[in-house]
Design a protein that fits this description.
- By secondary structure, the protein is α/β, with parallel strands linked by helices.
- It folds into three domains: 234 residues, Ribonuclease Z/Hydroxyacylglutathione hydrolase-like (Metallo-beta-lactamase, Chain A), CATH 3.60.15; 108 residues, 3-Layer(aba) Sandwich (Oxidized Rhodanese, domain 1), CATH 3.40.250; 99 residues, Oxidized Rhodanese, domain 1, CATH 3.40.250.10.
- The chain is built from 17 helices and 24 strands.
- Strand 7 and strand 8 form a beta hairpin.
- Helix 4 crosses helix 6.
- The longest helix is centred in the middle third of the chain and has 16 residues.
- It is globular.
- 48% of the residues are buried.
- Keywords: Metal-binding.
- One of its GO terms (molecular function) is sulfur dioxygenase activity.
- It holds the Pfam family Rhodanese.
- This is MBL fold metallo-hydrolase.
Length: 470
Amino acid sequence: MKIEQIYTGCLAQGAYYIESNGEVAIIDPLREVSPYIKKAEDNNATIKYIFETHFHADFVSGHVTLSKQTGAPIVYGPEANPNFDAIIATDGQEFKLGNITIVALHTPGHTMESTTYLLKDENGNNHAIFSGDTLFLGDVGRPDLAQKAASMTQEQLAGLLFDSLRTKIMPLADDVIVYPAHGAGSACGKNLSKQTVGTIGEQKATNYALRADMTKEEFVQEVTDGLLPPPQYFPLNVKMNKEGYDDIDDVLERGTRPLEPKEFEAIANETGAIILDVRHQNDFVKGHIPRSISIGIDGGFAPWVGALIADVKQPILLVAPEGREEETIIRLSRVGFDNTLGYLKGGFEAWKHNGFEYDTISSISAEEFKSILDKEEVPVFDVRKDGEFKSEHVVNAHHTSLDYLNDYLAEFPEDKPFYVHCAGGYRSVIAASILKSRGIHNLVDVAGGYAAIKNAGIPTTDYVCPSTLK
């Protein structure tokens, strides 16, 4: 028996390759399926089943394409109703895979169809669970994403999740391994661990939601407390996972179209496409196409695209580092953005070399920022997340979290410079690019973010001051 976790850091997502006696099961595959197929071929094995723990909200699974290319059936748990052929397992239904058995345990609560897959080894012993978004390490799945589809409140779904955990998962032996669908960084839970593999016993001892003396009322209160609104793209990804989508090869064929600067500009004007610049933020600051949006490929790329671009059908034109165009298109497709129309051939340097207009972002060091603050009080906008800001921030700074930046455009001064920072520089440049695309140009980015600000000795406070905005 072989179990391999295939973890994708930018999505904080774990897919699983399970093999026994020449037969393979894939659990929650990513959109690009060729690595799974190649791995099975290299091992002279055949993909027999594709298991989906639920209709994912934070990424588009590769289940439809993988089934099409291998002939392996897709398996969902009870109450799933996809628009394509699939096996809808009953609670407790067993699936033989070589010398092992995979059992579907219906665990509703995160969603109604959520299912945990229990793996029994060659001797019939419970070996591991693939818990999807039902149980994470350190947390459980948020119960607010499926309210509309289930015609239930988040409190009712949380109550179902309490029952699922205590009747299906907690009775398992402490040494049963837990393989979750996500780790720290995912928006599918609140307090996910950085660890990606654990055991039932460890979770009983450390996970707040598995306390032995916890009442259902306490569980519902604690699980629903402090939930932030989900990213806008979540329901759109659920729809794609449930109804199907274009093959990744078709997406790549459309997107990997090299465009000369003049053609690139013409298509942008004709289609209303967003120009998405995925170069490093430092390069974007020095020069970029006017009104383009910066979301660097080497940061939390896909989740930020999903959070900040409202519609997965939005046409996109790419400015990418040379040789990373295909990678960018694949990573966009993982969160459902399939409508890439092409990329700028030769990158930004070709645009600049051909004499096209370009823009820059005013940027200063933390030391320069300190010298300004020593002389006068200026507007400072912190675009970090709520928890980061509440923990510590520049005295009298306003808080306009990047996630909700578009809701606060009216808060930025029109008649004087203001200063923007994040933790390290990645998010503040994203924010600056969005503001400039909205016609707000009197901003200054503080390079290096809050880390540099602290090192420069700029006064900070650890409480939320009255001037704080959301």
